[in-house]
Amino acid sequence: MAGRLWVLSSVVLMLTMLVAAKWQGSSSQPADIAAIKAQEACRDCHRQISTNHAQNAHSGLTCTQCHPNALEHQDADDPAKVLPVVDFRAEVCGSCHKFQYETYFMSEPGVAGIYGGTPANPHDHPKTKDFPLYNKIVAGHGFTKEYNEDRSHKFILRDHIDVKRPKNAACLNCKSTHVAYYWGREFKGIVLNETAKWDEVIARIPKEMHDYGVSCNQCHDPHSTQLRIINKGLKAAIAERGVNPYWQEKNAKSFEEADKQQKETLLCAQCHVEYVCGPGVDKKVRFVYSWRKVRDLDDFYRSEFNYMQDWVHAIIEEPLIKSQHPEVELFWESKYERSGASCVTCHMPKVKVNGRTLTSHWLVSPLRYIDGFVKGERLGAFPCGQCHSVSPQILKAQVLRVQKHVDEAQKRVQQALSESIDAIAAAKKSQKEGKTVNEQLLRQAVRLHQIAHLRWENLVVSENSMGFHNPEEVMKELNEAMDYARQAQMLALQSAGLVTKPESQ
Ligand code: HEC
Ligand code: HEC
Ligand code: HEC
Ligand code: HEC
Ligand code: HEC
Ligand code: HEC
Ligand code: HEC
């Protein structure tokens, strides 16, 4: 597989011409490109895009190379009635950028570490395999219907389409570049917003993109070729709190003003963050990025949404928070972030391809790159070497050690949460049977359970690195969660007289 990876080199220029020729149906002489350019009066009406295009790496391309029928559009009496093709398929970019295209679509089933990796079939690796009490802890939530270990970017939309749980259009912002790009605007006859119907949106996404959904123009402006973000939820969060609310010196006001490290992390923050998407307890559909660390989430959801944004737990009958995948928020304040790494540093390493340094677009566990590096494979890489001088094998073993410690700690919290659920349920049962229950103690118990639940579910189940991205923070929060869950259990039992208060308290 790696052996077939192609090279971008001076050939690119030739390819440019060839593709142009193919799409234009003309010969491959540079003079023709000039001739096409002379015909293109796009700038008259599309000034900003034409300027972006002319000033950057794609200036050698004609507009019609990506918008084949644009001349007919331009010459029409009403250009708005003869719209040119707007093609989001990765094949368009891949025709000239073969290496990035091929690596982006790599997916090798198999397990790099113990806690990560890509299952061949997502249904074979439900999250309950790693977290056996999960369905009890989130009882009543849609995720109990099906929730699997993540696969590679090659299957972003496919795995969402196939999963058996309720879906809505807002979720598609992280599964489809079309949805993210046109969110808030008209897209093929419907307006994309919280009230759009999921299946009507899916029907408008080209079939060829139903597996991967997220394309090159999610992170690259096709005209300027610069890195960009298009997700509106993230943009709104940045407008309110800056690009990194937990690092004042780096907290630029917009993506464009951010430094390279922040930009690279923001690309991933379009999706690898906690957000509220979909109907809450109050049936209201929201699409909001909280853009906060776990320690600030509970207060925020209480004040902002009255805790109605997610669901009511089926056993304790109280609202709880269901997190998404907060890789970015956990990464903030980590030793890696503070020493200059971004998500791209470890997950998109630079590799040498026939003398050129290119960026691998295979978004996978870095342990897979380390294994490849040790075996001398073409797509092997050791990005960690920028900061570490130990051998790749030793460093990998250290990663697994850190993850094992986190896993052991989280297992105890999982058990404590399960027992706190039982205690709250028992107290409520007493209450329903008409027995006296100290409401104040029971409320305290529920409150502590909510906070403990949030920390465990957010940091170890929804977050995908089993603590690696910031072990110190995860261990601290799990420690607190353990304490809160046990207190919740005790207070709930006390509230219903199911256990007597110890004298010493
Ligand atoms: C006389 C003005 C005019 C010229 C010249 C013109 N366009 Fe347009 N273009 C429009 C209008 C009007 C629209 C529709 C805008 C809208 O709906 O928001 C449009 C839309 C587009 C779209 C978006 C299509 C879509 O479905 O969203 C593309 C792509 C485009 N033009 C490319 C080009 C290119 C490439 C050229 C040069 C070959 C060009 N245009 C020349 C007026 C023009
Ligand atoms: C490398 C391929 C490529 C080239 C070259 C290219 N475009 Fe585009 N264009 C796209 C893609 C992809 C989109 C979809 C929107 C996005 O991702 O920003 C797009 C969208 C557009 C739109 C619609 C913007 C909107 O928001 O509705 C216009 C207008 C447009 N292009 C004009 C041009 C003009 C004018 C040129 C030449 C100066 C040009 N394009 C060259 C790929 C290209
Ligand atoms: C017809 C060929 C062609 C197509 C199609 C094409 N590109 Fe390019 N691209 C080039 C050339 C030529 C360069 C400049 C030389 C280089 O960097 O390899 C370039 C450069 C780039 C760069 C590097 C910019 C830099 O400053 O380093 C990015 C990123 C890029 N293209 C993204 C895209 C994306 C995304 C698409 C699809 C929307 C696309 N390209 C489609 C030919 C193409
Ligand atoms: C998740 C975001 C993301 C997506 C999606 C993405 N890229 Fe990139 N791309 C990057 C980053 C980050 C870089 C490195 C930029 C840098 O070092 O300045 C990069 C670099 C590039 C470059 C410059 C040469 C290089 O290898 O460093 C090209 C060309 C490119 N990408 C093409 C593509 C193509 C083609 C696709 C779709 C198949 C794509 N990208 C999808 C993030 C992305
Ligand atoms: C548009 C949304 C989006 C963006 C942007 C995005 N991701 Fe993802 N990513 C996903 C989704 C969704 C999945 C899960 C896919 C599945 O299970 O089918 C995923 C999966 C992954 C995986 C797991 C792969 C595996 O084999 O298990 C890694 C690693 C990853 N992404 C890293 C990144 C990094 C690093 C960035 C930024 C450079 C990034 N992603 C940008 C949506 C995104
Ligand atoms: C210092 C290197 C490093 C940085 C920086 C980093 N990661 Fe990771 N990431 C890892 C390691 C190591 C793992 C654990 C992989 C495993 O268990 O196989 C991991 C795991 C993941 C996973 C789960 C992969 C899987 O196979 O299921 C995702 C998704 C992910 N990271 C996304 C991100 C995002 C997004 C960022 C930026 C906020 C980021 N990472 C920053 C090293 C890093
Ligand atoms: C930008 C610099 C940087 C990069 C890149 C980086 N690290 Fe680190 N890493 C650090 C720092 C700083 C520490 C803490 C100080 C120390 O232990 O040397 C650390 C510590 C560690 C530890 C010990 C963690 C603990 O909690 O005991 C492991 C394991 C580790 N790194 C693995 C990796 C792996 C694997 C990669 C590549 C995928 C990587 N690092 C990339 C900076 C980096």
Beta-strand residue percentage? 5-15%
Distance between the termini: 65 Å
Structure classification: mainly alpha
Give the integer mean of the pLDDT values. 92
The top-level CATH class of the domain at 394-495 is: Mainly Alpha
User: Helical region count?
Assistant: 20
Bound ligands, named by name, code or SMILES: heme C
Largest sheet: spatial strand order: 1-2
Rg measurement, Å: 26 Å
- The shape is globular
Unreliable residue runs: 1-29
CATH architecture of the domain at 394-495: Up-down Bundle
The biggest beta sheet is recorded as: 2 strands, antiparallel
Structure commentary:
- This protein is mainly α and 505 residues long.
- Among the domains are: 85 residues, no CATH class; 44 residues, no CATH class; 102 residues, Up-down Bundle (Butyryl-CoA Dehydrogenase, subunit A, domain 3), CATH 1.20.140.10.
- Helices cover 44% and strands 5% of the residues.
- The protein has 20 helices and 8 strands.
- It has a two-stranded antiparallel sheet with strand order 1-2. Strands 3-4 form a two-stranded antiparallel ribbon. A two-stranded antiparallel sheet has the order 5-6.
- The longest helix is centred in the last third of the chain and has 41 residues.
- The termini are far apart.
- The N terminus is likely disordered.
- The structure holds heme C (7 copies).
- The site of one heme C has 18 residues, from helix 5, helix 6, helix 12 and strand 8.
What keyword list fits this structure?
505 residues, 8 strands, two-stranded antiparallel sheet, Butyryl-CoA Dehydrogenase, subunit A, domain 3, binds heme C, globular, 20 helices
